[in-house]
Amino acid sequence: MPDMDLIAQGLLFPEGPVATSSGTVIVAEIYSGQLTVVDATSGDLDRFAVCGGGPNGVAVGPNGLLYVCNNGGFEWHRMDGLIAPGRQPEDYSGGRIQTVEPASGAVRDLYTTAGAYPLRGPNDLVFDDAGGFWFTDLGKTRRRDSDLGGLYYATADGTSISEVVYPLTQPNGVGLSPDGKRIYVAETGPGRVWAWYVESPGKLVRSGNGPSGAELLWGFDGYQMLDSLAVDSEGNVCVATLISGAISVISPEAKLVEQIRPPEHDPLVTNICFGGPDLRTAYITSSGRGCLYSTRWPVPGLKLAYNL
Description:
Helices cover 0% and strands 52% of the residues. The protein has no helices and 29 strands.
């Protein structure tokens, strides 16, 4: 088990970490609806943008803007020292994709619908080398029913969005292989990671027997739910695993390599990103406890299409 350093605490359900070249980490605080810069050395926090709703996944786009999956917010619960999201809240503000200007914190809604259908709970996103982005919409849960989710592709300029895979069951983390030819999606409740081959931007090869022709990369035993993910330079899928409170490393050959946990158990470990000069510093969000950790990763992370 690698050593982990506590970088920051007191965060309000941090998600969507983005490591920058200046040594900071940008996180979305879903509970408070804000984006926050964390100084990875001092742990100081600068809450610089108010997105409202529930900012979730964050990525850097080709124009230097931050792109945010906003899930519209949750009900919140406190238990055993943890904070946890719940159902769709009474003040649910709708799902949307937003852009945030890093210097000013200016927020703009980019997409609120996909065709005739409103976005419900956008969750995670990843840009490809063509300048577009894939994103998941997990949907929302209410007292007696819940939404189905999907996988979408959109352009960074706000002019085109398409529903590529529908339905999925609580699609959450999404990532691309190092060559960009394979896309992975984690389903939260079922605990499955699906894979498709990418034919071209926004187009998939449907060669498997899973949803919309997906191939099953890995299905977790027992009660293990999944959250967001990142891919490392060797093509391993590093997926946040709820209940277990771990980052699970799955090889592209469909083998569970290991599970890595923060020092203090948190069933709500939600995400990972890679930074540092050699991309071997992993930043992990322990969201239930409001913490951000760092650790030395065995291999470099995958360099994303766009960075700050």
